[in-house]
Design goal:
By secondary structure, the protein is mainly β. The protein has one domain. The chain contains no helices and six strands. It has a four-stranded mixed β-sheet with strand order 4-3-2-6, with no helix packed on it. A two-stranded antiparallel sheet has the order 1-5. The termini are far apart. The mean pLDDT is 96.
Length: 72
């Protein structure tokens, strides 16, 4: 069963190396089935693929469009 939650608390949220995950933080969704879409999301975004965990970090995660590669 899927869980719904905010990106800022999700292990699939990838942000800039020195960024702190928060509602206004922009980053890249790196959930395996969604990677092809290169979704740029905020910490206040959320979905039913939420998996609680530590966020990932990579330079270019907040670019528009994101230029970072998934780090998981």
């Amino acid at each position: 069963m899927a869980n719904w939650g905010l990106c800022q608390d999700c292990k699939w949220f990838q942000i800039e190396p020195k960024a702190t995950a928060g509602e206004r933080t922009l980053g890249l969704c790196i959930e395996e089935d969604l990677q092809e879409f290169r979704l740029r999301v905020s910490g206040a975004s959320g979905c039913n693929r939420f998996t609680e965990g530590d966020v990932a970090h990579a330079k270019g995660s907040s670019s528009a469009p994101p230029t970072a590669k998934p780090q998981r």
